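Morning run. Coffee first, then this:
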Amino acid sequence: MSSLIQAVGWDLDDTLYDRNLPYLAVYQYMEENVLETGIGFDTFNYFYQMNSDIEFRRYTDGRASIDQYRNNRVLMTYAQFGFTIKKKDAILFNQKYEEAKESIVLRPGTKACLDLLQKSGVQQFLLTNGPAQQAHKIDLLGLEDYFSEENTFISSQLGTAKPAIEIFQKVEECLDLNPATTLYIGDNYEADMLGASNAGWQGLFLNVHHKDAAKVSDTITICKDMDDIYKSLNSKLGGKK
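And here it is:
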C-alpha cells in the first residue's frame, strides 16, 4: 500500500448519497398539499440548506434543541420568501423528510470507491455532522461492511462539529491516525475541506454544489463525481487497482 494515504474518512450527507433527492420529494409534497409558493426547488433548497447550517450551529452550541433546529430552518426559509407557515407545517415538512430519506441510495460509483480502499487495506471511517440518528443512514445505505460503531463519528456525540479542528483531532486520537497520511472526502468546502486541511489532513473535494474552482485552495483536489474520486484514490494508491 502506498504511504500517501493510510486512512480515508468520508462525509455522509451529500457525499455518499445525494441529499437533494429526499428534499425534492418533500418540496413537491409541500407545494402540492400545503402551500404553493411557485419557488423553484433549486432556489428553495439553496436557502433551506443555508438556514439548516445556521440552525445546526445553534443546536451544536446548545442554543437550540433538536426540534427547534429542525423546525426553525423550515420556518426561516419560507419567511425569506415572504410566506408564513405554521409550526405544524414545519413539523410536517420534517416528518415527510424522515419518510423520504428511508429511500436514500448511494451515489453512482460510491461502492467501487469503498471497495477499492477496503481491498487495498486502507482504514476507512465516517465523520459526519448531525444528530445521533445519522447512524441509521448506514443501514439504509447498506454500509455495514464498511462502517461500524467503532469507526463512525457523529458530531452530536463528540460535542463539537466540523469545521472545528477539535472534531478531527478526536477522530485522530480514537483511531490513532497520522494526519499527514489521512485523507478526507466531502462535499462542503468550508466544513469538510477547510476543516480537514486545518487539521493537517489531505482532502478530496466532491464539488457537487459547483463551487468556483478559483476559490478552492490549490492543495485540495477537486472532483466532480465519484468516478473522479475513484481515479484520485487509485492514483494515491499507486494506480495498481
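The two ends are 11 Å apart (CA to CA). Good start to the day.
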